[in-house]
Input
Amino acid sequence: MNALEGMTMADLLGPVDQAPRRRSGPEPQSQAMRRSVDDFDFDEEAFLAALDENEPVGTTGEVVKGVVIGVESDGVYVDIGGKAPGFMPKQEAGLGVITNLKERFPKDLEVEVLVTREQNADGMVTISARALALRQSWETVRNLAKDGRVVQVKVNGFNRGGVTCDLEGLRAFIPRSQLQDGDQHEALVGKTLGVTFIEVNAETRKLVLSEKKAATAARFAELAVGQLVEGVVASIKPYGYFVDLGGISGLLHQSSVTGGQLRDLREVFSSGERVRALITELDPGRGRIALNTALLEAQPGEILIAKEQLLAEAEDRANRARSLLRQQEQAAG
Output
């Protein structure tokens, strides 16, 4: 301790160049301390090339294009631009059964596939033509359903609940309740049906179709506002008549029966009686058709006293009514 007497803190710490100094801010650089990329012998082009070489090619869910470079018994190798080729297992080669891979995927064939698994330790990714085809099929079916299209399918099987078929490579189901002849659905195998869509769900893989709904859609396509139609009174409700127009029903509301005073609907039509009426509204989406006989009257209440004459002259009266409606629309416009 006696030896330390008289020494300062600087003496204890030693020379300045032997101990690091702490600063609150960045240490200024002298010209000698400045470094450039060249001082470290750094090749920027080589570095970027190395990054490109090891850049993963193909992320799950990505659609990529490539060229077939080899075919084995268990699958197909496709050059998709990575450091290793993409591998497509045999069961992922497409929709349906492919018996001859080499014939289906000759060398140098350009293909478009979906990445189903990102690269493994060897840099190889798993790809699928089948998954891409399924994605495209669901998209096609969604668009058909959105447009309300009627499509043709061939029945290829049945069970207790209905029949099965294929549409755009997808398995579809038609419930017995949605078949025109649901009681004899076993006999439909091999037959072609016109159907439309009830449910399209790619996530749950549910594709449900309807023959009855397709028949309704086809019938709606034959109709137009202002058209004179003929049908049979199927039922009478407090608010009007439901008229069977041949597979679809129209509503002749009590307010559209006559321009006169109507006390009871049974004054005009009975159940099972034939009716001729104008279509005043069509709603295919909700399956609604609004009918009108009041527009066929020459004077309010005529149908109450001269129904037979009115129905016999319905064609000519419908033409006059359409002309009147057009004039009213032009005046309103």
In short: DSSP finds eight helices and 15 strands in the chain. Helices lie at 9-13, 44-54, 101-104, 129-146, 211-221, 302-305, 307-312, 314-332. Confidence is low (pLDDT under 50) at residues 36-40, 50-56.
